[in-house]
Write a sequence for this structure.
């Protein structure tokens, strides 16, 4: 639905020179969670033998992770006869795969929240969009081949980090961008370039590169709308493109772009053509059916996570 643009009482900020933007990004806070994501738990989860009691003991050291875990169990397993209040029991219900993802989500989202500060935006919906895209990225990758590590999940989680950097570093421009975006007639990236002088994909890539983070995260931030332009990691970036569109079309969370993708838009993308090059209709339909089932479960899962 289109909304009427409300005139701003303030003079809109002028676009900035690229050199100034780059300089300001260098002053932006770090995301320590992306350099070391819950190391003790990650090491234990990757061990040949993992014991529920050991995992529960490590989780109990982190109140935020504990709270998120118990909320997740309560949300996903709401039909249980009695609420789960014990960490070890919660670990049993959730399983190692989701525990590993929780261990990554919790510190990253907390860092995101600190960086965003008090900037006005529906942040809870945005965190849901980021986590939802991470979960669906893993589902898309799984439809093609078994992932070797968690890089695809983390890439999906941080794909829109440029929007957080923009809110933290250029709050007046960010506010003006989203005032205009709410009209719902123009793509967000076009408005970002008009108002700030750079869109969130380039901003995010500059930030992640300055933080010396892995190239797969830098490339994902930069090319998740155009994976065909990426030099490396194209299969992960293609999966993020598809996941982003699926989550956005389903109206799960908020990403600040009020122009919602049309149904089936993901199957017309460079990412879809790269991951599913065969035109065999049965193969494509099977992949899409799997993704739709995962997408249908997503709102309940996200309610327990954020």
């Amino acid at each position: 639905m289109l909304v009427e643009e409300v005139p701003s009482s303030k003079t809109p900020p002028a676009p900035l020179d690229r050199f100034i933007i780059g300089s300001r990004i260098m002053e932006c806070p770090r995301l320590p969670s992306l350099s070391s994501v819950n190391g003790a738990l990650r090491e234990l989860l990757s061990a040949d033998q993992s014991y529920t009691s050991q995992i529960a003991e490590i989780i109990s050291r982190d109140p935020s992770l504990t709270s998120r875990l118990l909320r997740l169990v309560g949300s996903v397993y709401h039909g249980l006869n009695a609420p789960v209040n014990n960490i070890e029991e919660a670990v049993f219900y959730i399983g190692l795969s989701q525990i590993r993802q929780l261990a990554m989500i919790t510190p990253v989202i907390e860092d995101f929240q600190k960086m965003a500060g008090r900037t006005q935006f529906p942040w809870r919906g945005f965190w849901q969009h980021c986590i939802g895209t991470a979960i669906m990225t893993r589902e898309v990758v799984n439809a093609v081949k078994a992932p070797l590590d968690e890089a695809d999940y983390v890439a999906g989680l941080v794909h829109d980090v440029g929007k957080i950097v923009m809110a933290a570093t250029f709050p007046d421009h960010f506010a003006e961008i989203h005032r205009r975006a709410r009209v719902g007639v123009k793509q967000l990236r076009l408005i970002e370039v008009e108002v700030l002088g750079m869109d969130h994909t380039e901003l995010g890539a500059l930030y992640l590169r300055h933080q010396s983070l892995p190239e797969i995260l830098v490339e994902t931030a930069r090319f998740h709308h155009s994976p065909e332009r990426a030099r490396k990691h194209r299969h992960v970036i293609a999966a993020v493109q598809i996941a982003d569109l699926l989550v956005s079309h389903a109206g799960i969370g908020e990403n600040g772009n009020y122009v919602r993708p049309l149904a089936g838009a993901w199957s017309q993308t460079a990412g879809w053509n790269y991951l599913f090059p065969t035109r065999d209709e049965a193969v494509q339909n099977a992949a899409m059916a799997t993704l739709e089932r995962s997408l249908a479960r997503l709102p309940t899962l996200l309610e327990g996570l954020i």
